[in-house]
Amino acid sequence: MKIKSQKDFFSGLMFTVVGVAFAWGATNYSVGTGARMGPGYFPLVLGILMAVIGLGIMFSGLTVETTDGEKIGKWAWKQVVLILGANLMFGILLGGLPSIGLPAMGMIIAIYALVIIASLAGHEFKLPSVLILATVLAVGSYVAFIWALKLQIQVWPTFIG
Amino acid sequence: MELFQNLSTGFGVAFTFTNLLYCLVGCILGTLIGVLPGIGPVATIAMLLPATYALPPVSALIMLAGIYYGAQYGGSTTAILVNLPGESSSVVTVIDGHQMARQGRGGPALAAAGLGSFFAGCVGTLILAAFAPPLTELAFKFGPAEYFSLMVLGLIGAVVLASGSLLKAVAMIVLGLLLGIVGTDVNSGVARFSFDIPELTDGIGFVVIAMGVFGYGEIIGNLSQPDDEREVFTHKVKGLWPTKDDFKRMTPAVLRGTALGSALGILPGGGALLAAFAAYALEKKIKMRPGEVPFGKGNIRGVASPESANNAGAQTSFIPLLTLGIPPNAVMALMVGAMTIHNIQPGPQVMTSNPELFWGLIASMWIGNAMLIILNLPLIGMWIKLLTVPYKFLFPAIVLFCAIGVYSTNNNTFDVWMVAIFGFVGYLFLKLRTEPAPLLLGFILGPMMEENLRRALLLSRGAWSVFVTRPLSAGLLVAAALLLGIVLLPAVKSKREEAFVED
Description:
The structure holds 2 protein chains of 2 kinds. By secondary structure, chain A is an all-alpha fold. Chain A contains 5 helices and no strands. Chain A folds into 2 domains: 6-63; 77-148, no CATH class. In chain B, strand 1 and strand 2 (191-192) form a beta hairpin. The radius of gyration of chain B is 22 Å and the shape is globular. The interface between A and B is large, with 71 and 65 residues.
């Protein structure tokens, strides 16, 4: 058996797996009857529905002819790791990680870290221009979010402020 | 005339200094993100939601609405000058608009888009003001069964009118519904699918999903493509004013686009994107006058009509939101979120319980459209400059604004971890070619749907027949079935696929 559309087959698989997971999870809650729906009723019905639709999509991925096999293609792991990593680093630096004893470093340092890490995901990386961008964004964010909108965000590291 | 009285109340609210200021801010931001490709109104509104906590509800909604219709204006600028849609609803404008710019007629193309949008925006706002009260009357006759059926119709509509595979869109809606019910069940107090994580008992924040899937997912997708050469036709924009001949051709096109866009905007699942596609398809069918440039070679009608339609559609898609409390598209789903933040339950009661908010918002749309035409035609040079900012400077800024927006929603780093997960999920959707917009709609409607289903079945003692024995509910379900049936017809199916192919 040959997969005729990878995109369809694997998205169908994803829907089926997630649907089954939700339906299975829903059985942990009381399901009840139509007239007295328990917390498990709606998710159980939807989970089954989604699993069935997922099977349908998988089936079409196996049967409907496509010209190029609709390959999923290469994963852009570098971009995924850097963009999401920049976001995670921002959260860690901004809020600190009490579990490993890292103090909060505040918004300004977090912005520099985020811009540098995110820029690494681009097609070219020139440190001077990235640093200028980070400075512009740090000043801009301070004016917009702290000064104008008065959001409650820590600006400087705990041990300085 | 009650309408005029209501509108004067509205203008009274909208013409205060604060509200005019927020309207202007919304319009400027909207144009900005419209002009910049790679960031849309969904992500922007999600980013700014936390910032509106402190504002009065009217000002917050006025600003957020401005972002949505402002983006429709800005999107055309990029489409015409850069050959890239600044906004998804400007995809068809690229075809003829960019050809006009190549021939040195970028100015008239921009003017046609701007003037068409302004006219359509005014008409759309009037339709909204005129149709909202009677629809609200109707909405008060709705019981839980009718609401449930209406949501089914809305979700089916969203699927039918979305591009791409039908089955996948349905699956995405169901996934959205399921994600929507994560958290504490209001009836039993049971925390569902929370994995004993305290933050999850409040449910997944929609800012997190919107930002992860639409913000980060898109950025990763964009970056993984090779750098495309951008061709900016900035130096060729000289005269803005269209010729007499242009006016003769674009006027009927603007009228047709406005009518079509207004109608499609009201439909569940409709909005700016669909309106633009349909309007372009209609223009192509209409007979050419002698001496007219063919479509795809720079016909002004191909710019004027879809641009009017997307603006009219953006305006009238507020109708189902404001009268029934049902969002017809992803942007409106976020507006529901914005209203909930300010303790306003969207639905027919908004008009009677918050008349200043209701009419103030509508009046602000007209003012906003007037601001936009000034922002976009005389001040076009400013936006053109922006287009020369390369993406390598743009995307770190977008990542940053997403991160700050997510963090400030709850001042909580947990949301930052969650958005990373959904960012990956968004990229996965992109890779598997599944359209994410229906997911957000399902996510917002999930809890509402469960609640109405539960109430309807409780009242009927568990008999599912209640959905077909009540005439209004039956009518809505029949409409949903017809809609689904029509798209599944082989003839329509191929047409639908054709309509969404950009050539």
